């Protein structure tokens, strides 16, 4: 049982923790301060109430436009403000995107995400993107995109084209945000999420840890996410990947245990959300990843890359799943556990091959 100084849990008449949007910063900091075993135990209780504890969601992502972004996000190698050796690429042709989506579907994926390094989409680009959504949707896949900021009208057009999910991360706390990004405001990020939700799409939004923020900033980030009503369907929790040439290349590493604590607190605050173990897995050993799953993470990005940063190779992911007894979350494309296990093996191997061959396909609902 939780210790006597555990934060108060509000419950429904059935005894299950209720979905809350009013967590105070003090309550969240108290969760972070729990003894590690108590925190993970509580996160496990919440996780098992709403999910199969051994099921992990897997999706596929394609970078449809890379580099030369006008934003100055200090962590990002795609920013045009820094010299990181990343080659910029123009928007992919629709046919290239559809080809990759077909390959992802054949490999067992049920969701296909597309990401572009923009501040916000221009009209001529949005027209092309809308057609990408329509054609990928016609393949029977769920669709997800991250295109930077969108307004009400753009969000409505994306929803009408069939877009299911939109990714737009808050990145960090409101108080620390100005230390990381100056070219767009926190309010603009929240406005984009509001436009996405108003248009009827599902929300994917999380943040990045290990950017030099204080523990209170990590609590405040999760508070902001938990205040969204409804909660984001997907909450990517990223560990900073330090890239040479960016202002954060020499920031001190975050203690992995602190990262796991954030996963657990996110699970408690947003019980029905998929908490995504996102960027930074390349630097994590198997034990750290196993703790993340124990703490309530139930989604990963597979493949060799996440947009422009490294990710564990597909064979490593497959081996880790087998070692931990995990299986992919069942979708319409995976009707039985045997089929699901076959699908992930095929998906991971094919994704690895495609990444090396074409440097196009990466993974899931965005870091």
General description of the model:
With 367 residues, the protein is of the alpha/beta class. The protein has helices at residues 25-32, 36-50, 94-106, 123-137, 152-161, 186-198, 215-227, 256-269, 286-294, 314-324, 337-358; strands at residues 55-65, 111-116, 142-146, 165-167, 202-204, 207-209, 234-239, 274-277, 299-301, 305-306, 309-310, 327-328, 361-363. The chain has one domain: Aldolase class I (TIM Barrel), CATH 3.20.20. The protein is built from eleven helices and 13 strands. Strands 1, 2, 3, 4, 5, 6, 7, 8, 9, 12 and 13 form an eleven-stranded mixed β-sheet that branches. Strand 2 (111-116), helix 4 and strand 3 (142-146) form a beta-alpha-beta unit. Helix 5 (152-161) crosses helix 6. The model is unreliable at 1-5, 11-16, 303-312 and 332-367 (pLDDT under 50).
**Total helical elements:** 11
Radius of gyration: 19 Å
- In whole angstroms, the N-to-C terminal distance is 34 Å
Chain oligomer state: single chain
Question: In CATH, what is the class?
Answer: Alpha Beta
Reading the helices and strands in chain order gives HHEHEHEHEHEEHEHEHEEEHEHE
Helix-and-strand structural type: alpha/beta
Q: Strand percentage, roughly?
A: 5-15%
User: Which topology does CATH recognise?
Assistant: TIM Barrel
CATH superfamily: Aldolase class I
Poorly predicted parts: 1-5, 11-16, 303-312, 332-367
Largest beta sheet, briefly? 11 strands, mixed
- Number-wise, the strands total 13
| Shape, per Cα inertia axes | globular
The share of residues in helices is: 25-40%
Mean pLDDT equals 80
CATH architecture, please?
Alpha-Beta Barrel
Count the domains. 1
Function: Catalyzes the conversion of dethiobiotin (DTB) to biotin by the insertion of a sulfur atom into dethiobiotin via a radical-based mechanism.
Organism: Candidatus Halomonas stercoripullorum
Binding site for [4Fe-4S] cluster: 69, 73, 76
Family: Belongs to the radical SAM superfamily. Biotin synthase family.
């Amino acid at each position: 049982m939780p210790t006597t100084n555990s934060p108060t849990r509000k419950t429904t008449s059935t005894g299950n923790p209720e979905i809350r949007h009013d967590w105070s910063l003090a309550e969240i900091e108290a969760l972070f301060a729990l003894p590690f075993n108590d925190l993970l135990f509580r996160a496990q209780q919440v996780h098992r109430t709403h999910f199969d504890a051994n099921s992990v969601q897997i999706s596929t992502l394609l970078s449809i436009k890379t580099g030369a972004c006008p934003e100055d996000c200090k962590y990002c190698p795609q920013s045009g403000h820094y010299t990181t050796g990343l080659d910029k690429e123009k928007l992919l042709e629709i046919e290239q995107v559809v080809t990759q989506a077909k390959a992802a579907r054949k490999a067992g994926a049920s969701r296909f995400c597309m990401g572009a390094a923009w501040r916000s989409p221009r009209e001529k680009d949005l027209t092309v993107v809308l057609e990408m959504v329509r054609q990928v949707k016609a393949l029977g896949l769920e669709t997800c995109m991250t295109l930077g900021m969108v307004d009400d009208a753009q969000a409505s057009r994306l929803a009408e084209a069939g877009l299911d999910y939109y990714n737009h991360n808050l990145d960090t706390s409101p108080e620390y945000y100005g230390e990381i990004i100056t070219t767009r405001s926190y309010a603009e990020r929240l406005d984009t999420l509001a436009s996405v939700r108003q248009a009827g799409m599902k929300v994917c939004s999380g943040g990045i840890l290990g950017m030099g923020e204080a523990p209170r900033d990590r609590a405040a980030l999760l508070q902001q996410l938990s205040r969204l009503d409804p909660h984001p369907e997907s909450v990517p929790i990223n560990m900073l990947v330090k890239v040479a040439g960016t202002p954060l290349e020499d920031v001190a590493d975050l203690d992995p245990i602190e990262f796991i604590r954030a996963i657990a607190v996110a699970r408690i605050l947003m019980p029905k959300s998929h908490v995504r173990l996102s960027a930074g897995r390349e630097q994590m050993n198997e034990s750290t990843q196993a703790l993340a799953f124990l703490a309530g993470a139930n989604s990963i990005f597979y493949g060799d890359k996440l947009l422009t940063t490294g990710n564990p190779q597909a064979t490593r992911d497959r081996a880790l799943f087998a070692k931990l007894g995990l299986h992919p979350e069942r979708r319409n494309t995976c009707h039985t556990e045997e089929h699901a296990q076959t699908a992930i093996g095929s998906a991971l191997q094919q994704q690895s091959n495609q990444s090396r061959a074409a440097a196009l396909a990466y993974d899931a609902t965005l870091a």
